[in-house]
Amino acid sequence: MTKPETIVCEIYDAWRAQDLEWLASYLPDDFCHIIHIPTEIHSLGGMARGKAATIERLAVIADDFDFLRFDTGGLIAQEDKAAVEILSTIGIERPARPSKRQSGISGPSRTAGP
Fold it and tell me: What gap in Å lies between CA 77 and CA 3, rounded to an integer?
């Protein structure tokens, strides 16, 4: 595996484990995260600018949605860059309940599949 491929795989391993501190350790401060959903459809759509805003957004996603499938098999890596198309299936928003992070509950990733 190339170095970019290894790093991207570790980033997604951190996401699958819902370990946002581990994931954040790979992101530069000026990182941007885009979700291609209009904000009129869902407030999480659009761009989060900066590592802190990205991690905050990912925490909401991790707490509010069930990942039924999360496939990073489309990873393409070259010498100094990598890209991945993520095929995912997420469940509907969960009813209001205490956040895992607030309740102190932890456990294995909620992802299914590869």
Answer: 9
